[in-house]
UniProtKB/TrEMBL annotation:
Top-level lineage group: Eukaryota
Ranges of residues in domain Pyridoxamine 5'-phosphate oxidase Alr4036 family FMN-binding: 12-136
Region entry Disordered, spans: 94-113, 189-214, 254-277
Designated name of the protein: Pyridoxamine 5'-phosphate oxidase Alr4036 family FMN-binding domain-containing protein
Any GO MF annotation of the entry: FMN binding
Pfam family membership, one: Pyridox_oxase_2
SUPFAM superfamilies per the UniProt record, alphabetical: FMN-binding split barrel (SSF50475)
Length: 277
């Protein structure tokens, strides 16, 4: 793997409980709400489907593609989307690069502020994850021409690399890990023959059409995006006991890349405060 050099970091203190709660919602098919901000500063929210955590692809019996070696973990929730969706543009336009609409459709990038909300009915717990949203496209994240490896792809690799924990046989298998393979497997993990449901939008695309492998589908590869949320602030509100409700706020320390901090450091440290709901 090229483009970034992950450093050994510890699992976020909220991760295990959050993952257990997500499993109660359906694991890699859990529903959550995802908020972005328009370039004009207006909020937008929509429901999305949780697709696991970056570098930790959920098992899927329908996916027979070769997988990446299991040499990384992360605390970054993942979902998939289309480059033509408004949320894609929002993440580009509100990131440091202030990308325009055409750039948001062209490939990897983003970095705008986002928030994800998960309500876990079985435990009466609400999770709010605030951070940045990054989009990965199969066409330019890896390989290709030098022009394809633009500032957007390099920024995404560097930012996600800060959250990627080397595990297992990392030293000997690092060169085998592929960004593009991870994206292709996310596409493959979608429902078998997932049909297009919003009518014809481009030449070669129509209602009811079914897709094959991402590597074989030019139109799908052009528009398919994996969205990775890099968390900076996580709130867990436990309302299971009406007489003793609790809320914990986990904040990535400023000196380790938290809100307003240094994004160059690869280590991580979380501060936790218990507050009244």
């Amino acid at each position: 793997m090229s483009g970034q050099h992950p450093t050994v970091i510890s699992k976020a203190p909220w991760r295990q409980t959050f993952e257990e709660h997500v499993q109660k919602l359906g694991g890699p098919s859990a529903e959550f709400y995802f908020a972005t901000v328009t370039p004009e500063g207006e909020p937008r929210v929509r429901s999305c489907i949780h697709r696991g955590f970056w570098t930790q692809l959920p098992e899927n019996k329908h996916n027979e593609l070769p997988k990446n070696p299991a040499i990384y973990e992360s605390d970054c929730p993942v979902f998939t989307t289309d480059a033509r969706m408004e949320k894609t543009y929002h993440m580009f336009a509100t990131g440091k690069g202030h990308g325009d609409r055409e750039q948001s459709k062209s490939g990897t990038g983003g970095g705008g502020p986002v928030e994800a909300i998960y309500w876990v009915k079985d435990t009466s717990t609400q999770w709010r994850i605030r951070g940045k949203g990054w989009l990965i496209a199969a066409n330019d994240i890896e390989g290709g021409t030098e022009a394809a490896q633009n500032s957007g792809t390099m920024t995404v690799k560097a930012q996600l690399g800060r959250y990627m924990r080397p595990v297992g046989d990392h030293e000997s298998k690092n060169s085998e890990w592929s960004w593009r393979r991870e994206v292709e497997n996310q596409f493959e993990n979608l429902s078998p023959g997932h049909p297009i449901s919003e009518g014809k939008t481009e030449e070669g695309e129509a209602l009811g059409q079914k897709a094959g492998h991402l590597s074989d589908e030019d139109l799908a590869r052009k528009n398919f995006r994996v969205v990775v949320i890099t968390p900076e602030v996580v709130e867990r509100t436990d309302l299971s006991d009406p007489e003793n409700s609790k809320r914990w706020t986990y904040t990535l320390a400023k000196e380790f890349g938290g809100p307003g901090g240094n994004e160059e450091k690869k280590e991580q440290e979380w501060n936790v405060v218990e507050t009244w709901p």
